[in-house]
Amino acid sequence: MLMKYQQQTLAIELLNLHAKVKIAHQATGIPVKLLRQTYRQLDGRSPSRGSIKFSTRGLTGSRRKYKDVTLFAVCYRAASNKSADNQIQTLISAFDAYKRSYP
């Protein structure tokens, strides 16, 4: 029962950060249909569709994007050095730090 609660809490946290539904599904194992419904309830609109981008070209296409990616990479490295949490929690911590330091 506790494991299910932790999965649901993680899913809600990821959806509040506007993570792709597929990422929340992979991290929690919760069905995609339920995650889509939850996203709609939380955000008031349907989640964005489309596949997860694997190319770095879109991330580094401009100077501004390159600076953003570099800042996030620094936040992720700091979060992973500080914590022995699992990878998804480290990612959430890094994203929170990135949002706090975003100019």
Brief description of this entry?
This protein has two domains: 2-43; 63-101, no CATH class. Helices cover 68% and strands 0% of the residues.
Our count of domains comes out at 2
Unreliable segments of 5+ consecutive residues:
none
Strand count, sense and barrel status of the largest sheet are: none
Topology as H/E string? HHHHH
What's the overall average pLDDT, rounded?
Answer: 88
Distance from N terminus to C terminus (CA atoms, Å) equals 41 Å
Helix content: 55-70%
The rough form would be described as: globular
Radius of gyration: 15 Å
Strand content: under 5%
Q: How many helical stretches?
A: 5
Class from helix and strand fractions: mainly alpha
Number of strands: 0
Please tag this protein with its features.
103 residues, 5 helices, mainly alpha
Provide an overview of this structure:
It is a single chain. The protein is mainly α. The protein has two domains: 42 residues; 39 residues, no CATH class. Helix content is 68%, strand content 0%. Helix 1 crosses helix 3 and helix 2 packs across helix 3. The model has no long low-confidence stretch (mean pLDDT 88). One of its GO terms (biological process) is positive regulation of DNA-templated transcription.
